Amino acid sequence: MKLYYSATSPYVRKVNVFAVEAGLDGKIDNLVTNPWIEDAGLLADNPLSKVPTLVMDDGTVLFDSPVICEYLDSLNFGKKLIPETGMDRWKALRLQALGDGILDAAILRFLERKRPEAQQSKAWDYNQLKGIQRVLDHLESNMDDWDDGITIGQITVGCALGYLDFRFSDEDWRDKQPVLAKWYTTFAERNSMKMTQPVII
Ligand SMILES: N[C@@H](CCC(=O)N[C@@H](CS)C(=O)NCC(=O)O)C(=O)O
């Protein structure tokens, strides 16, 4: 399998962490691309021109990290990372949605900061920040509801917190979320997280 890859994309990281946790380490070749600059190969495979985009061995293309992770879990012969039935499934998917929501807002903030300063909107940035803070507060108060093992939900939240540290290290979230911070310290020690640290190339 091939994965259109950017070393700073947290959604790509999510897929790569998921692959390692699913026992698929070494089964995916990362194909380095910059989705913000037209890449003919990526455009031909994904009209959205976004990473992650996965090309299966038979040439079938999948995109959007939740879809790619579903596929990877179908190849996972160990404990499923996306519970297949029951309330565990809905809780894991809901947690994934919260983690992806943090990422969507954080990416919007990052892109806003790249615009010429005169065009940046502080109010708009603040609105995204408030959304992230609301989700962090929610996570902090609801962690006793998390699955004991590892699921797509925890992987996504872990990658989201990693992205906040990577891009917004001046705004430490740990002060207000000590329980989440403690969880993340342990989670970040997993091999899958260490192997996929974001780097600016
Ligand atoms: N919902 C998508 C988000 C993917 C995404 O937004 N990726 C960014 C990089 S972090 C991208 O490729 N952006 C390029 C663009 O929007 O043109 C997922 O979960 O995979």
Sheet-strand content, in percent, reads 5-15%
Structural class: alpha+beta
**Secondary structure: number of strands:** 4
Helix amount: 40-55%
**Count of helical stretches:** 8
Principal-axes geometry comes out as globular
Q: List SSEs in N-to-C order.
A: EHEHEEHHHHHH
N-C termini distance:
23 Å
Strand order of the largest sheet: 2-1-3-4
| Rg of Cα set | 17 Å
Q: Low-confidence runs (pLDDT<50, min 5 residues)?
A: none
Mean pLDDT: 96
Account of the 3D structure:
53% of the residues lie in helices and 7% in strands. The chain has 201 residues and is of the alpha+beta class. It has a 4-stranded mixed beta sheet with strand order 2-1-3-4, covered by helices on one side. Helix 4 runs parallel beside helix 6 (152-167). The mean pLDDT is 96. The structure holds glutathione. Glutathione is lined by residues 9, 11, 35-36, 49-52, 64-65, 100, 107.
Give the SSE layout:
Elements lengths: L1 E4 L4 H12 L7 E4 L7 H6 L7 E3 L5 E3 L1 H10 L11 H29 L7 H20 L10 H16 L10 H10 L3 H4 L7
Parallel strand pairs: 1-2
Antiparallel strand pairs: 1-3, 3-4
Helix pairs in contact: 1-3, 1-6, 4-5, 4-6
Summarize, please.
The protein is of the alpha+beta class and 201 residues long. The protein has helices at 10-21, 40-45, 65-74, 86-114, 122-141, 152-167, 178-187, 191-194, and strands spanning 2-5, 29-32, 53-55, 61-63.
Considering the chains and any ligands shown, give keywords for the structure.
8 helices, 4 strands, 4-stranded mixed sheet, alpha+beta, binds glutathione, 201 residues
